[in-house]
Amino acid sequence: MADCDGEGAQTPLQLYERLTAQGDQVRALKSAKAEKTEIESAVQLLLKLKVEYKQMTGQDYKAGCPPPENLTVPDNGPSAEGTADEDEVNPWNVTTTNAKGVDYDKLILRFGSSKIDKELVDRIEKVSGQKPHRFLRRGIFFSHRDMHQVLDAYEKHKGFYLYTGRGPSSEAMHVGHLIPFIFTKWLQDVFDIPLVIQLTDDEKYLWKDLSLEECYRFAVENAKDIIACGFDVNKTFIFSDLDYMGSSPQFYRNVVKIQKHVTFNQVKGIFGFTDSDCIGKISFPAIQAAPSFSNSFPHIFGERKDIQCLIPCAIDQDPYFRMTRDVAPRIGYPKPALLHSTFFPALQGAQTKMSASDVNSSIFLTDSPKQIKNKINKHAFSGGKDTVEEHRQFGGNAEVDVSFMYLTFFLEDDEQLEKIRQDYTSGALLTGELKKILIETLQPMIATHQERRKQVTEELVKQFMTPRPLNFNF
Description:
The protein is of the alpha/beta class. It has 21 helices and 11 strands. Strand 5, helix 7 (about 175-190) and strand 6 (about 195-200) form a beta-alpha-beta unit. The radius of gyration is 23 Å and the shape is globular. The relative contact order is 0.11.
């Protein structure tokens, strides 16, 4: 058997046995209430072994299901060098060569976060007193930083606040943009806590070929879609950077503190900036970091700087908050905690996330029922076989089928979703029938959103975007 560092040749069965033993060790450490660092180290090794097992066998590790003795190890080419870089994940680009999408276990290892396991999901249920959101039950929010610490504080009646955001690059948002807001609303409801939502219109001006006026207008239009998600106006502050930066001295002071503690070399290393990037881009990360600190919002929290922040976001935003967490203790603030979501795939497949700039890759919140139907039928990547006969005989591949992926995000009933997966995999359910289920799920959902958005008046937007006290009890 190979050493713990993974060196030396191993058979799939030997690696399987190591994985099983490591899983047992993780459970034993948790049962014994071992030190947090010891448990996290064991979990990181378990994830590393799972990635190795998947690379070696082409299959996910499943306890109690050893690999067959005659398993043929896939030929991954002459060298495994550079495989860690197959998935490109940063705040501006997400691509992978794998039809199943980004390898999130590998990403957890690369980013150094922690996996959201069943123990954490169960604890969130216990502390909140509510059934976990489907995004938690299905691993759509899959990774975290310091969530146990947030729950520890909450149990001691020390509150926390939520922070999420949106980069308003277009007037219309697509369904993928709703994911963090759907989940954030659930968190706000079950924990009864305040929320700040940053609209980074300044960032879009710096990165896109747009005027300042366009970016601000997009921010206000996007705010209407966000408000239509059902947020409580008494507990939610939505702000445009172009507005708020100039009217909040404390927010700007925090931006400057962060800027002083991050070097140019650090931001180049984290974000890949070059000497030809404008200085606005180089200084922007500090602006996205500042809402992580409670005293950036004196109208809500006064001068308190001890309230921890929880940030639900897609994992591509994590580089901003790794930087923030590094700076926080050096300027006397608590580190923000994070909950990371997977990406919402483009219609053409999970190799990239849905984009607002490609009309045919996205289902927009402004699309009509007919447009939704046509886009799904014409563009949604299928895991089905080429002919009905082959599909009936061999079944479809739900892991790469975009219609099934979308249903995992939006279909609430776990049993119904599992039956769809089984029927599609067995060949009983055809691709056209699967697409029809998705169409019938999305059409009423988007129509309902459009109706709610019509009720959002300019006066209501102004209410949400005006700095003011919020209601909370901590």
